[in-house]
Design goal:
It contains twelve helices and ten strands. The protein is α/β, with parallel strands linked by helices and 270 residues long.
Length: 270
């Protein structure tokens, strides 16, 4: 067994243990020790081979950023609590995503277009480590993608703010030139579309096994489960239970530690 200190970044100090395995389930003792860490540290068991990924594909709302854009936008219409309640249920997998999105957007009919930029400027903030994750992977040759059930108005701006991700995908809010019409452009980008984005973006990069996918909601599960390394970030229980690993005690830089990057190789954001 080899012990390696990966160093400290922000409030996190990372270590790795490299050991041989026959590929069977981990021992009950190791499993129990790792479970004891829950809530205090984040950990992952990953194969050494192919550990560094060539594609980063991330959800936006409550993953790369700390907010749900639609909930914040609804606040400008005085409807945040109503919209947020639907969002929460959809992210837990209790509601059909497409139906829940259509319902929430319909509630915003008539909201002036100026509210979108005001919402972005006043409410939207990157989660800790987001820009460092993006820039470090880019510096090491990875392609970076933002894929969201949210809206292209926000994905375009967040992609730029988070380190100029090379690609972004989202839904389209329809308007009449002055205000929102309460409709969403079709087809809606939901769970299966996120999986399709992973498959499409990874085609030239050796397939989904060479990707790291990060998300928090039920509509992220398909891409998380299909990626070579699927991470749940501060996620709903249904997502954390099915991901390869979860990040809940630390920040997005941990996705770099999981790939074997040492802290002194991080491209820290200014």
């Amino acid at each position: 067994m080899i012990f390696r200190d990966l160093g400290q970044s922000a409030e996190s100090h990372a270590f790795e243990l490299i050991f041989e395995s026959d590929g069977t389930a981990m021992s009950p003792d190791l499993s129990a020790r790792l479970e004891d860490c829950a809530g205090h540290c984040d950990w992952a068991l990953v194969p050494a081979e192919g550990r560094r990924k060539t594609l980063l594909i991330c959800d936006m709302d409550s993953t790369v950023i700390g907010q749900e854009c639609l909930d914040e936008l609804a606040d400008f219409a005085g409807l945040k609590s109503e919209v947020a309640a639907i969002t929460e249920r959809a992210m837990r997998g209790e509601l059909d995503f497409e139906g829940a999105l259509t319902t929430r957007v319909a509630m915003l009919k008539g909201l002036g277009l100026d509210a979108l930029q005001r919402c972005f400027d006043a409410r939207i903030t990157l989660n800790p480590g987001a820009r460092t994750l993006v820039r470090t992977m880019q510096a090491n040759g990875a392609h970076t993608v933002l894929v969201s059930g949210g809206f292209t108005f926000f994905t375009s701006r967040v992609a730029r703010a988070a380190g100029n991700l090379e690609s972004h995908r989202g839904n389209t809010l329809l308007d009449d030139g002055h205000a929102l019409t309460g409709q969403v452009g079709q087809p809606i980008l939901g769970r299966e579309a996120k999986l399709a984005a992973l498959e499409d973006e990874s085609t030239a990069r050796g397939g989904p096994g060479n990707a790291i996918a990060i998300g928090d909601g039920a509509n992220d599960l398909a891409m998380i489960k299909a990626a070579g390394l699927g991470l749940a970030y501060d996620a709903k229980p249904v997502v954390a239970a099915q991901a390869d690993a979860a990040i809940s005690a630390t920040d997005l830089r941990t996705a770099l530690f999981f790939q074997g990057y040492a802290a002194d190789t991080f491209v820290e954001a200014g």
